[in-house]
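Re-run with default settings, no changes from the original entry. Doing this only to confirm the output is reproducible before filing.
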Amino acid sequence: MRSALPTIASDAWTAIVFLFHDRDWEEALLPHALTLPAFYIGAVGSRRTQDSRIDMLRSSGISDAALQRLETTVGLIPATRDPATLALSILSQVAERYHALTFAERAVSFAEQ
């Protein structure tokens, strides 16, 4: 059970990934994370866990637009249980999204010149 929540802050270059086994912390932190400017927000879990998570977020008043920011298929390798492979899989997906975002920004900047 959570007793004191940590402060979460981010900027447009922050990735936030929830890996909680006990979802008490997640239920308090995830709605707040979805209001932050992070470029990537993900949460690990089975399809059943993801459905439950979405229901919890909707009942907390989180909008569909905010829910669309949540990555529910976390990592490039689906359904891995090995911690090292999961970490590498998630990091690879975050790097891929970062690259896509920075490439898009560079393309817009170049087009404006």
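The chain has one domain: 15-112. The longest strand covers residues 15-18.
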